[in-house]
Amino acid sequence: MTGSFGDWSGEMTAIGPLYPFVGWEMLMVLLLLVFWIVWHVVQVRAETRQHEAEAEALRQGDNLQRVIQQEHTIERM
Questions:
Q1: pTM score above 0.70
Q2: Which domain holds residue 27?
Q3: Structural contact between residues 15 and 3, judged by C-beta atoms closer than 8 angstroms
Q4: Do 17 and 3 contact (CB within 8 A), yes or no?
Q5: pLDDT tens, 11-33?
Q6: Are 44 and 30 in contact (CB under 8 A)?
Q7: Is residue 15 within 8 Å of 5, Cβ to Cβ?
Q8: What is the CA radius of gyration of the chain?
């Protein structure tokens, strides 16, 4: 619970903490860093699977040749 600011006179230490979870800052930062790294790993794996699936679909039949032809047509415009 944070301190009361009904009266600004007095000692700062008597008011109490100015924000919740005082003392948890380092733990929160570490948890955030772990979450951030895990999120990036999951995101890279998902994008790799999607990329491989799209590449495999392009390798089927003449799909790759059609895509290349479409790109050349767009570049000429």
A1: no
A2: 22-76
A3: yes
A4: yes
A5: 767 777 778 888 899 999 999 99
A6: no
A7: yes
A8: 28
